[in-house]
Amino acid sequence: MAVRTQLKITPNALLRRYRNLALPGQVLVDRDEEVTPDTVVARTEMVPGDPWTVDITRELGLRLTPEQARRAILKRVGDRVENQETLAQYRLPGVLGETRTVRSPITGTVEFVSYAYGRVLIREDARLAQRQVVVNVARQLDVWPRTIGMYLRYREGDEVRQGAALACAPGGVGLLYSYTPVAGVVEHVDRRTGTVVISRPTLPAEVDAYFPGRVHELVPSLGAVVGTRGDHVLGIFGLGFENHGTLRVLVDSPRAELPAEAVTPDCGGKVLVGGAYIGFEALRLALDRGVHGVIVGGADHTDLERLAGKVIGVGMTGQEELSLTVILTEGFGFMPMNRDLFDLLAGAEGSVVSINGTTQVRAGVVRPEIIVHRGLPDRGGGDLPDRVIPPAADLVPGTRVRLLRKPHLGQWGIVVRAGDLAALETEARVTVAEVELENGRRVAVPEANLEVH
Fold first, then answer.
1. Closest CA to 345 of 284, 263, 287, 270
2. Is the peptide bond before 204 cis (omega within 30 degrees of 0)?
3. What would the DSSP string read from start to end of 200-252?
4. CA 22 to CA 207: how far, in whole Å?
């Protein structure tokens, strides 16, 4: 049984996309307004989510063994905790022993637990992060609130780093420290309560329209739904996040390699289309010359890692700090581009395209996308049509296929006959199809090694 291609092409569709902030902010567009890819739809100020270290032993006021800490700490790595939720609990020995409790100072996810040191690391949920943090220095140092000025290492207006010793005082068996859980500026020292208020820096966050189109509806405080008319393509693998530019085709065949000398200085700001392959030198030139995107059939995995400057695993891409977005429409290696896709892109040369290289190959599959802008939609818009792709495809004469294994890897052809049983070199009998390649040669190929287009 042949497999269906993972490349998906939806031509001339009505596309709508939610363009929303992660946190409430200000919406900057109006309903029915025409937008460009760079139009800022919404903007807000956000506090970055910091990792917080909660010292369980200090909060309990006890010295715990690793085994005692294991029993006291109630949360495990990966657990979500809410602000003031019980993080650890320990009952003192004795019939009337009191129970001491440690509560989470923030809402977030537990990233690390050390039973040897009695500490829990929590990654703060940035959506719920507070702009000001209050540190109870008097309680942590066990001193009178009015005397905390004697022990503070910072004054109002000073900047502090996360984890810095905010104050220090003599304790029963050495020095006691009060550490700042976040980076920021000492805003206020309250000697009545013995607390220090730290103001955290905020970062601007905004979302743009991503493609030319029209605003169909507003999402209060978050963003808008932007629509356009165009061609929608889902590729196989990509690098880099959202980008856009004018489409330029640099080769005349879907089987051609995109040479480095074709990436000229005037390609800056463009989205380039190649054929079957692009090498590292061409990728490096595209990055250096300000090219916004490259769409090509295939490339070497090692070249993409050199470009990204890191190992590319099997998780998610799209977070790379690259100004260049790369989309592979077929796979790794020398892989001729789908003829229908190549013809579509060649016919759209000069059009504005929006691309996103984000790829996730595990659960919740995400494929890199290409959107070729064809014009503004009518008011009211529409949705991208659903396309149901069956897991396998029956082969019939005339079906266009691509070969997935050597010695004809990546070649295209037309099925002449299918359904015959044949013996392989391993003596296994499998169903094969006779395929006429583009060069006119006919070969017998196991159906499982064919991809239907």
1. 270
2. no
3. PP-EEEEEE--SSEEEEEEETTTEEEEEEEEEEEE-SEEES-EEEEEEEE--S
4. 9
Same domain? For 57 and 118 the reply is yes
CATH number for the domain harbouring residue 258? 3.50.30
Residue spans of the chain under pLDDT 50:
3, 381-392
pTM of the full structure: 0.66
Give how far Cα 181 sits from Cα of 52, 137, 184, 252, Å: 6, 12, 10, 59
Please give the residue range of the domain that contains residue 96: 51-199
3-state SS assignment for residue 340 = helix
| Contacts (Cβ under 8 Å, ≥6 apart) of 261 | none
Query: What pLDDT was estimated at residue 424?
Result: 59
Q: Let me know if residue 341 belongs to a domain.
A: yes
Nearest-angstrom CA–CA distance, 323 and 49: 25
| 288 and 355, same domain (yes or no) | yes
Give, as one character, the DSSP assignment of residue 68: H
The whole-number pLDDT of residue 386 equals 36
Residue 374 within a domain = no
Say whether both 59 and 185 belong to one domain: yes
Tell me what pLDDT residue 379 has.
63
Q: Is 163 helix (H, G, I), strand (E, B) or coil?
A: coil
Count Cβ atoms below 10 Å from residue 12 Cβ, excluding itself: 11
Q: Looking at the domain assignment, is residue 407 inside a domain? A: yes
Are 181 and 56 within one domain?
yes
The span from the CA of 412 to the CA of 434, in Å, is 13
| Neighbour order of strands in the sheet with 26-27 | 26-27, 40-46, 203-208
Residue 227 domain flag: no
Which tens digits make up the pLDDT trace of 137-155? Answer: 998 888 999 999 999 999 9
DSSP 3-state of 71:
helix
Strand order, beta sheet including 80-81: 51-55, 119-124, 108-114, 80-81
Question: What is the sign of the dihedral through the CA atoms of 37, 41, 43 and 48?
Answer: negative
- Give how many domains the chain has, as a whole number: 3
Length of the chain: 453
Q: How far is CA 164 from the centre of its chain?
A: 31
Say whether 197 sits in a helix, a strand or coil: strand
Closest CA to 151 of 173, 169, 177, 164: 169
Q: Are strands 119-124 and 51-55 parallel, antiparallel or unpaired?
A: antiparallel
